[in-house]
Every structure is written in structure tokens, then in C-alpha cells.
């Protein structure tokens, strides 16, 4: 079995795959081209990609050795600052370790988008509590 893609590459691949559902032919063509380039950069090809799609699913405990700890700092206004890389690790662990409903997937997608845009993410107390609650479920 091949090792998993690095998290940043896997997240990029996910976004590119979602672009394949675009109504724009041009966007779909760009997505196919960029997926091909990403696969080459990772030492893979389309055959490897297809093989990974049908590979038997590994139980979450097989590849999550521990629950990541949320490394954050609380600000004076009671908000929480978390580094984008740490947030992405937490989101990946949650996605891999627990079945999620639509709202939970949407919340995590929003967190991933913010982490892609900013180096440090500021969470409200409510967002932080929700994220830690999801993490505790795995």
C-alpha cells in the first residue's frame, strides 16, 4: 500500500476534484490539468489515483496514532488564535476519525478555507467549543 499524500497535497487534490463539477468547461479542463501535475509531483499517475479510490478503507485507528491537541492562544477578547497548520491537522483528524453530518462537514470545510487563506485563524469561543467537541468524538 502506498503512503498517504501529504496533507497539503491531499487538500489541494480535494479542491481540484470538486472543481470537476463546475459548469464551466474551462474550469474542468484546468482542474484535470492541475490534478495531473499534482499527481506527477507526488510521484503518482492517474492509474495510482484510481487504485487509491478503490483501495479498502483503513480503520481510523490504523492511521491516526493519537488525537491531536489543539495548540492555541486565548486573546484578551476571549477569542482563540490557532496556527493554520495546527487547524488543518485537527480538521484532518476529525474527518478521518468520525462520521460527520452535513453541518459538521460544512463547518470543517469553512475551517479549511480559512486555514488556506490565513496563517493564523481567530475562532470565537463558540467555534472553538464546537471544534473541540468534534475532536473529542473521535
Residues in helices, as a percent range:
55-70%
| Structure annotation, total helices | 7
β-strand number? 3
The dominant shape is: elongated
Query: How are helices and strands ordered from N to C?
Result: HHHHEEHHEH
Please identify the structural class as seen in this structure: mainly alpha
Mean pLDDT reading: 83
Keywords summarizing the entry:
138 residues, mainly alpha, 3-stranded antiparallel sheet, 7 helices, 62% helix, 8% strand
Characterize the structure shown.
The protein has 138 residues and is mostly helical. 62% of the residues lie in helices and 8% in strands. The protein has seven helices and three strands. The protein has helices spanning 7-19, 25-41, 46-54, 60-63, 84-97, 102-117, 125-136; strands at residues 72-74, 80-83, 120-123. Strands 1-2-3 form a three-stranded antiparallel beta sheet. A hairpin with a 5-residue loop joins β1 (72-74) and β2 (80-83). α1 packs antiparallel against α2 and α5 packs antiparallel against α6. It is elongated. Residues 58-65 have low confidence and may be disordered.
